[in-house]
């Protein structure tokens, strides 16, 4: 690989990844190389460590000079700072330097200042400098305090040195991957789209819509953006017409909290309505009486129970008016590693135009489609994703979108998302709220060619890990999690769930943004998760774990991967069919056809019944044993 134009370079890699060999190859052509060894020599009882050091020594050419800094960790910065411009330095490695730095023999010391001095020396180094360091942050969090201290310190050192270097390379299984500067991308240039009017919301541009803005500013509360238009994609000509909506079952009163109009604050501890406690079990009991040839609806009984509880009737009707809310909000930084630039915006525009998978499925289902622009989230590994003001505005915006949908007669909401980096943001929220590990809940990154991009996956894991480390002492309140880790799309989705709960309207989820919003909304109003239903987890590890935490069972396990929202729309016709059957099938006919009034009380008994022998055991005549055998005449039994 080409690495021209660098003066200072950091080589990262795991154990036995080939990072040292790669670094040595970079300086092999130098006239003279000064090898800086940072690790302390092992004791007499550590033969394996001594063998490792010996292998490194044997691999170095005789023309190289060696300098050791294990006695004083602050000496490494001095060696780098005082190097001559015509020298080439190879430092191997920073893991050994951190080990010495944390040694009790060198404590107490200001480790932060020492790391800062090293980074400053690297940044100002006049010589050609290559540093090697292990990347240990992609594994699980160590179980010992010393192990956690080492990984935390090494992670901080790697970040500081990487920021100071001109170039950074990650070596995986002997294969170098350039991280800094980023490899140039040769993406095809898209045709410029017509200019669209926009309105700024907390620094984020959103489409401006025609018509008056109903969201009026109140004291201390910023005005919300106008709601995006709702489109109903046209179904193909061969599609069957959608039956008219039946209002049966939606006559129960609803609860509304007009946050956008009154300025009420969305905060933890809100008391929102719960589904009906009795309608669900009654609906399941009724299913057992229906005239079906088999054993019933199986797993789809959950759909009937859920619909009955949310509609407040044992005979729920199928959802006819459905609205899909497609949230488009990108995440900057490592969360979006592997995502093609502009791809999410292209899909959002396609949905607006009635094209693409989501729009086609919405057309088949007769569902309305509303594309919602959410604020872009900043790189969570470097700082908060959103400001507190943006979080409040996004929550109220989502709440209002849900209220407007219910006011328009919508009976079911579907949360969809198409932003770049949504999976990593959802994984960060899941890790912060449920204690999950990023590598365990981040799915594999698949390129457009169907290839697995492990480098992008590692970059996403690193971004989530660094974000969690940055916020390790921060509050885990719902709004703080959204501000630090979640981003705009998850914040808007959380507002949608809360608004739908307040208006007694169910929500269908199927992807990471939806379940992440479910976890956050649970901490704002515990009732919200009871109005959510999971269509299919698609085999996504984050969705599977979050659904377990929320107590949501997938209605179908088809392992669909059509994009968040499209999976739910694929399953929706099946759910409607189950509700239609449950509402329309009659009870099973009774098999008892005998009429008690047909028996004639004056009928004489059958003579044959009188001739039947009497097998009753005779009563004993007195004390003593008895026998059922007839005794001989003139004798007593016994």
How would you characterize this protein structure?
The protein starts with 7 loop residues before the first strand and ends in a 28-residue tail after the last helix. Strands 3-2-4-5-1-6-7 form a seven-stranded mixed beta sheet, with helices on both faces. Strands 10-12-11-13-14-15 form a six-stranded mixed beta sheet, sandwiched between helices. Strands 8-9 form a two-stranded antiparallel ribbon. The radius of gyration is 35 Å and the shape is elongated. Helix 2 (47-59) links the parallel strand 2 (34-37) and strand 3 (65-68). It is built from 21 helices and 15 strands. It has 638 residues and is α/β, with parallel strands linked by helices. The protein has a domain at 8-42 and 50-180: Rossmann fold, CATH 3.40.50.
Lateral strand order in the biggest sheet? 3-2-4-5-1-6-7
> Roughly what is the average pLDDT, rounded to an integer?
79
In the CATH hierarchy, the architecture of the domain at 8-42 and 50-180 is 3-Layer(aba) Sandwich
CATH class descriptor name of the domain at 8-42 and 50-180: Alpha Beta
Short description:
The chain has 638 residues and is of the alpha/beta class. 37% of the residues lie in helices and 11% in strands.
Strand and helix map with partners:
Elements lengths: L7 E6 L5 H8 L7 E4 L9 H13 L5 E4 L6 H7 L6 E5 L1 H8 L9 H13 L4 E7 L10 H20 L2 E6 L2 E6 L17 E4 L2 E4 L22 E2 L27 H4 L16 H9 L13 H11 L10 E7 L14 H10 L3 H10 L2 E6 L14 H20 L4 E6 L4 H13 L3 H4 L12 H17 L7 H9 L1 H15 L4 E3 L2 H13 L7 E3 L6 H10 L15 H19 L22 H4 L28
Parallel strand pairs: 1-5, 1-6, 2-3, 2-4, 4-5, 11-12, 11-13, 13-14, 14-15
Antiparallel strand pairs: 6-7, 8-9, 10-12
Helix pairs in contact: 3-5, 4-6, 5-6, 8-9, 9-20, 10-11, 11-20, 12-16, 12-17, 13-15, 13-16, 13-18, 13-19, 16-18, 17-18, 18-19
């Amino acid at each position: 690989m080409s690495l021209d134009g660098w003066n200072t370079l950091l080589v990262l890699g795991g154990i036995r990844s080939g990072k040292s060999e790669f670094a040595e190859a970079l300086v092999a052509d130098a006239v003279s190389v000064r090898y800086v060894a940072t690790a302390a020599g092992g004791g007499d009882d550590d033969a394996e460590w001594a063998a490792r050091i010996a292998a490194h020594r044997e691999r170095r050419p005789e023309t190289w000079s060696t300098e050791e800094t294990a006695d004083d960790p602050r000496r490494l910065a001095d060696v780098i700072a005082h190097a001559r411009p015509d020298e080439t330095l190879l430092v191997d490695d920073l893991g050994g330097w951190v080990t010495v730095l944390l040694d009790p023999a060198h404590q107490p010391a200001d480790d932060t200042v020492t790391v800062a001095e090293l980074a400053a020396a690297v940044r100002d180094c006049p010589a050609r400098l290559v540093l090697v360091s292990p990347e240990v942050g992609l594994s699980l969090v160590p179980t010992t305090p010393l192990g956690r201290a080492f990984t935390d310190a090494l992670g901080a050192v790697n970040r500081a040195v990487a920021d100071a270097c001109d170039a950074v390379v990650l070596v995986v299984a002997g294969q170098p991957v350039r991280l800094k500067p980023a490899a140039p991308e040769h993406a095809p240039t898209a045709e410029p789209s017509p200019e669209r009017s926009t309105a700024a919301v907390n620094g984020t541009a959103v489409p401006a819509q025609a018509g008056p803005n109903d969201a009026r500013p109140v004291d201390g509360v910023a005005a919300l953006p106008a709601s995006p238009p709702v489109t109903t994609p046209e179904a193909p000509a061969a599609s069957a017409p959608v039956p008219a909506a039946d209002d049966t079952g939606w006559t129960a009163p609803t609860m509304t909290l007009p946050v956008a109009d009154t300025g009420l604050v969305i905060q933890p501890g809100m008391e929102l309505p719960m589904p009906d406690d009795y309608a669900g079990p009654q609906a399941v009991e009724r299913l057992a009486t229906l005239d079906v040839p088999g054993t019933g609806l199986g797993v789809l009984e959950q759909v009937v129970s859920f619909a009955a509880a949310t509609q407040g009737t044992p005979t729920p009707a199928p959802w006819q008016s459905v609205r899909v809310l497609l949230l488009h909000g990108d995440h900057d930084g490592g969360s979006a590693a592997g995502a093609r630039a502009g791809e999410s915006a292209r899909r959002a525009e396609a949905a607006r135009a009635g094209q693409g998978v989501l729009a086609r499925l919405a057309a088949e289902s007769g569902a309305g489609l509303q594309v919602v622009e959410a604020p872009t989230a900043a790189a969570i590994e470097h700082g908060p994703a959103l400001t507190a003001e943006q979080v409040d505005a996004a929550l109220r915006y989502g709440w209002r979108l849900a209220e407007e949908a219910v006011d328009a007669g919508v009976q079911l909401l579907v949360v969809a998302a198409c932003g770049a980096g949504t999976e990593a943001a959802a994984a960060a929220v899941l890790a912060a709220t449920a204690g999950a590990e990023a590598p365990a809940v981040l799915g594999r990154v698949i390129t457009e060619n169907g290839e697995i991009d492990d480098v992008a996956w590692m970059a996403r894991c690193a971004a989530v890990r660094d974000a969690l480390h940055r916020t390790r002492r921060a509050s885990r309140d719902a709004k703080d999690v959204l501000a630090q880790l979640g981003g705009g799309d998850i914040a808007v989705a959380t507002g949608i769930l809360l608004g739908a709960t307040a208006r007694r309207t169910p929500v269908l989820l199927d992807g990471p943004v939806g379940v992440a919003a479910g976890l956050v909304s649970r901490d704002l109003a515990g009732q919200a998760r009871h109005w959510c239903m999971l269509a299919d987890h698609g085999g996504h590890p984050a969705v599977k774990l979050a659904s377990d935490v929320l107590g949501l069972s997938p209605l179908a396990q088809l392992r669909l991967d059509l994009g968040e929202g499209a999976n739910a729309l694929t399953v929706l016709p099946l759910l409607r069919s189950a509700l239609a059957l449950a509402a329309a099938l009659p009870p099973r006919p009774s098999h008892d056809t005998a009429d008690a009034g047909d028996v004639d009380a004056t009928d004489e008994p059958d003579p044959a019944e009188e001739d039947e022998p009497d097998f009753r055991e005779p009563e004993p005549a007195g004390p003593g044993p008895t026998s059922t055998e007839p005794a001989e005449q003139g004798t007593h039994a016994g």
